[in-house]
Design brief:
mainly alpha; Bromodomain-like
């Protein structure tokens, strides 16, 4: 990677623009999920709701990081949390992919099984209520199913988040003096 590209990438991944773009992506993903649910009638399964929860988590984190004052250690912590969100997002996407393709020993149910203090399905049922069992997901762009698209998106976001964490960690160490 050339020094100028690396410098631009490092600057972007440490900026408020990165967090703003990540939050916009999260809102877009939720919008697409809700469009498929309410306009096209593709009801979400238990694992789809888990993926929505991870999407909301990284979206809220990105919004928070976009408005908090710039601080290298706070930024580093945010990137660490973002990687954690992306790992959860990837794990749920991979699990759903395996269920859809008949790999492994997975299934899903009609309830989230969350405790009363985290009852998202009761608090915001229009977003988080399980309404279907896992099955075949609808086709999306380029002939990919929704589950395949989520898996590709989760891998890409995990990779970008990991790179951002490494760049920001190195930057924090170099600026420590």
């Amino acid at each position: 990677m050339s020094p100028s590209v690396k410098s631009i990438l490092e600057t972007l991944l440490a900026s408020k623009w990165y967090w703003s773009l990540l939050s916009l992506l999260g809102f877009a993903m939720l919008g697409v999920a809700l469009y498929y649910q309410y306009a096209l009638g593709d009801e979400p399964c238990q694992v789809c709701i888990h993926i929505r929860i991870w999407t909301v988590a990284f979206t809220l984190l990105a919004l928070l990081m976009a408005v908090l004052p710039g601080n290298r250690w706070l930024n580093l912590g945010g990137h660490g949390l973002a990687v954690g969100c992306m790992v959860g997002f990837y794990e749920r996407s991979k699990y759903l992919y395996d269920v859809e393709k008949g790999f492994g020993d997975g299934s899903c149910e009609f309830f989230l099984g969350f405790p009363d203090w985290f009852a998202l399905d009761r608090w915001l049922p229009f977003i988080f209520e399980v309404r279907n069992l896992c099955g075949l997901s609808p086709k999306m762009l380029w002939g990919l199913t929704m589950v395949e698209s989520l898996l590709v998106m989760s891998i890409a976001l995990l990779a970008v988040s990991a790179v951002a964490l490494v760049f920001n960690f190195v930057r924090a160490l170099n600026n420590r003096s």
